[in-house]
Amino acid sequence: MPFTRPSHRRQPSGPPRHPARRALAWTARGLALLVLGYVLAVAVLGAVPRPTDRLSLPACCLATSAARVIEAERDGPNAPAVPDATDATDAPVVPDAAEDTARQAPLVTIHVISNGVHADIVLPAQVQGEPGLAEVLGLDGATDGAPALSPHAHLAVGWGAREFYLTTPAWDQVRPGVALRALALAPAVLHVEVMPGPPLPDADTRTLHLTRQGYRNLVAFVAASLSRDTAGRPVRIAATQQGNGAGYGPGYGPGSLFLEATGRFSPLRTCNTWAAEALATTGARTPVWTPLPQFVLHHLPPAQ
Q1: Closest Cα to residue 111, out of 193, 11, 12, 29?
Q2: pTM
């Protein structure tokens, strides 16, 4: 029997891999790298506060007599006159003569809460000497079905896809068709929930102590997110409807309501992206883009 030299080449352990499987494996690796890159980008880009400018309330908000009285009381008798509504878009919220007073004013505490999928920003309904969020939202009186506000009331504000928000009071009631339509540049809505006080501290709550200018910027951002009627008032949605036709009144409960909002929901601008943009106006550290609330909370200090 002739002698044969053993081959040192590695023998294949099985049949050759199909080209489609090989392409699928490389695609999976590429997606894993993209996810890793995104997480790193969120950590890096969110680590530096975005530059912020002074934001002004829309002209429709400054046109109210209540807002003018608050401005006059805050600025004092020697402050410059409050600009007319026609000039409001170019006017700073705080005159330069009142800068020192504004720096010495007590900080305003707000909170960011999450249910694991969506982030809300919780602000005091009223802040002494400031145009309060309740006033901007048209809730500064228990009229026209608006929820009554206690002295310590807070307002949780969130933005999202209109149809999805209105028809999904609980996550176990999500309908696939509604969820898919929300991704296709869906019209937006603002949800407001009245809370008797600030949220309790937990793992999904963050606390921020804002300067007066940071607070004004945040209120102005929320005000600019509202659609308004010809009289400049926020447009309140009368009722929400479930798929079975059951109504939920103006919101999900007695302390909940919806307001028409500007913008459109999409995979690039989600409810959590809106929350991050709002917080960025205060000078807080936020990710540049995020579909999930975890990345919004990641850069904020925990509740105390």
Answers
A1: 193
A2: 0.73
